[in-house]
Amino acid sequence: MTPSAADTVLEVSGLSFGYPNGRQALDNVRFTLRRGEILGIVGPSGAGKSTLLLHLNGLLPLRPEPTRAATNGAAVHVAGLSVGAANLAEVRRRVGFLFQDPDDQLFCPTVRDDVAFGPLNLGLPRAEVERRITASLGAVGLEGFESRSTLQLSLGERKRVCLAGVLACQPLILALDEPFSNLDPRARRTLVDVLRRFEGSQIIATHELDVVVELCNRVIVLDEGAIRADGPPASVLADEALMERHGLEVPLRLQLSRKPTP
Amino acid sequence: MNESTARPRPPRSLCHRLPPAVVLLLSVSAIALGMFLPPAHWPSHGALLCVLFAALGLARVPFAVVAGRLAIFLGFALLFAISVPLSQGFRGGFEIAQGILFRGTESFLAGLWLISVVPFERLLATLRRLGVPAILIAILAFMYRFLFVLWNELDTMRAARRARTFDRGGLAFRWRNAAQMIGMLLIRSLGRSERVYGAMCARGWDGTLRTLDE
Amino acid sequence: MHVQDGYLSPEVCAATGLVAAAAVGYSIYKLRDDVSDRVVPLTGMTAAMIFAGQMVNFPIGLPVSGHLIGGVLAGMILGPWAGCLAVTMVLVVQRFLFSDGGLFSLGANILHMAVIGSIGGYAIVSIVRRFFKRPNVGAIVGSVVASWVTVVAASALFCLEFRLSHLAASFEFRNIFAMMVAIHSLIGVGEALITAAIVSYVLAQRPDLILGQTSTTGETAMAGVGRVTVAGIVVALCIGAFLAPFKSNFDDGLEHVSKVQGFSELAHSAWAFFTDYDAIPLFGGQWQGLSVSVAGVVGTLSVLLLALAFGRAVSPRSKAVEAGRE
Asked: Residues 6 or more apart from C33 whose CB is under 8 A from it?
């Protein structure tokens, strides 16, 4: 069953990207994302997960390093809009990006100022900005944190403030790069619950395969820049041979739910 | 070293209820007063110092904090102050030395009071409202945000080095190590600023400074 | 060295404050022309890095230790204008967060470290680099020369500020000037060593960070004339530091300024003491003048030797780095 055009929020077709030293980071990647879908991207370190995500909102390939990259800027379409230099602002409004390290993303001294950053750049009136700050902090479970100093938050809280800052821009798609890394179980649970409540589409690059099984309705295995598998987590991640081939392991959840062989 | 060790965080007091602009004005006025009093006039300077200590007490800054920081400050101030009459063979320059000690101490105490009462972010907002150029405020806010991150990175690097140095090395070795640490910090932090810049662009940054006014 | 409130008179503080504000304002103006929206994160992060770097101890076997000042380093990484802002931000944070350095003397501190240090340092490095074929060697030698010269020049400026601040009829300024200049000659050597070591480490890994200034922003960060003028002023101050204790044109100029400010009796008595070499036993007479000259000669020689040594130390590597960059 092919998804209808109206249903597709993201279309990546034939995306390739090479670094200046010749290393091929992405190799003819193609997939689509439907409205409301939560897509997990898994793979060994260096597979190209972050590189792929950075193409979705135009942060790549527009780095200043000159490259002979075989990248096609028109290979990514967000809700019908082709990602390219001409419409970066609109693309970035539609795709909310969460970086792996909150210290790379959170740069204002107070929570309120940092969450306000996106909406202010969108040119929204002050009353609307305030409303969005309150709403997004509420969505991540940090009500009342407006006047807190970003310097004194725990890692989990900082990640959630970053997410609030992204949610305040009301994106169509959330692109998350290793959102669960270094979180303690409670913080991870909180984040999973927050993501589950998000109404748009999501694309999550992560090592946490158990979370992928729980949260995602589709998963892509990426290895050496190419897609090796694309399907429901329950079947893709349970394929032992596939997992082993690409430096992964069948998540515990699926191992336990497998029927014991007689 | 983190933000709360750098800035004294006394419990809320009378002083905390004053508007930040007023606190700033009082602090600056105290320093200015000290500058215009005759440099070696003990009674007036003594009175001003008492007022400043009282203000610090009113703001509930722990005595230990004041004493500790004052001691460090005085250590360096005394060095320079003493060198003035020293250069005269102790036959003069005492007035200048006293001026240095009095005015310097008043400035130090007034500054300590200001930062104990007004959080740095509110101070920045106040300075912004007073007309300091937006770009300076933005750079200051950014710098403040990452200051302690980088400081801690440096501490971690230092600890990691110490764990593998085994007491080796004379001055040259230590200098090279110290310079390498700073060099590494430089490279890493400039890399980080690239990533933060990317994150800022991802949320629509185009170089125009916009803030929510207080 | 941070100037505290109390070293200088209110009038001098006001004057230096105005000049510093003008310099900072000009730097902001120059950056507005710059297309880059990277200025805020780059300058802010570099300022934070320099602040943190200033905390690193460089032991000298005494209870006091050496520290990075960072003016020249900031100028090399960010260029003159953003470098000036970065150092200014460091001074502001030091004052407001740690009460380190005076409030009214911020102007003087900015002049010493941000204006002379970064803008002057950048100018000197740019000029020195032109004499070297290999950019790495040029950068290192430039950093050595710029660090020493800017530290001594800043101390000379401070001596001038101090002289104009204090109206002591029977005060022998030249003794304290001699001490200041001698001490700062040593501090300058330290700064030269530290900066050069950092620069050579960074050059080995990320030469674009240090050498980038003349290529990314082009030679237009500071026009050739501007560069020479600024460097010239800084060098003149530096030379002035060593001539200060002696009866020279410096004194004539100072006397003129003093008269303009109404300190004529000070100038008169100063003349009397400048001609009287037997005034003070401790730092008396020709010994004092001689000691300052010795400091100057030793300092200059050290700078040259250091520059050559570092240049040679880095040159084998620089070949490899350049080969890698081709």
From this structure: none
Q: How far is B180 from chain A (nearest CA, A)?
A: 23
Picking from B83, B118, B153, the residue at the C-terminal end of a domain is: B118
C125 Cα to chain B: minimum distance (Å):
19
* Chain B residues inside the 8 Å CB shell of A151: 2-3, 145, 148
* Residues in chain A within 8 Å Cβ distance of B144: 109
Size of interface B-C (CB pairs under 8 A): 233
Domain that holds residue B184: 131-202
pLDDT digits 0-9 by tens, B18-42: 889 999 999 999 999 998 888 888 8
Residue A125 vs residues A37, A96, A119, A147, B176: alpha-carbon distances, Å: 31, 20, 9, 20, 53
* ipTM exceeds 0.95: no
* Of C160, C170, C159, C163, the residue nearest C280 (C-alpha): C170
d(C-alpha C165, C-alpha B95), whole Å: 13
| CB contact at 8 A, A135 and A165 | no
d(CA A166, CA A176): 10
β-bridge pairing A95-98 and A173-177 = parallel
Residue ranges and CATH numbers for the domains of chain C are 10-317 (1.10.1760.20)
**CB of B200 within 8 Å of any CB in chain A?**
yes
Choosing among B79, B143, B167, which should be mutated to test the C contact, i.e. which has the most C CBs within 10 A?
Answer: B143
Give CA separation, A163 vs A74, A175, B192, in Å. Answer: 28, 10, 19
Domain A5-101+172-257, second-level architecture: 3-Layer(aba) Sandwich (3.40)
Interatomic CA distance for residues C212 and C61, integer angstroms? 36
pLDDT tens per residue, range C168-186 = 556 777 788 888 888 899 9
The burial class, CB within 10 Å (0-12 / 13-18 / 19+), for B54 is exposed
Residues A150, B149: C-beta atoms closer than 8 Å: no
Choosing from B53, B83, B118, the residue where a domain stops is: B118
Structure tokens at B147: 């200051």
B contact residues 129-148, partner A, Cβ 8 Å cutoff: 141-142, 144-146, 148
Nearest-neighbour CA in chain A from B147: distance (Å)? 10
Coil, strand or helix: which one is C79? Answer: coil
Å between C177 CA and nearest CA of chain B = 9
Residue % of chain A over a pLDDT of 70: 89
Per-residue buried b or exposed e for B123-148, using 16+ beta carbons within 10 Å of the residue's own CB: bbbbbbeeeeeebbbbbbbbbbbbbb
Which of helix, strand or coil describes residue C58?
strand
Lowest-confidence pick of B80-89, C155-164, C243-252: C243-252
In the DSSP assignment, the letter for residue C117 is I
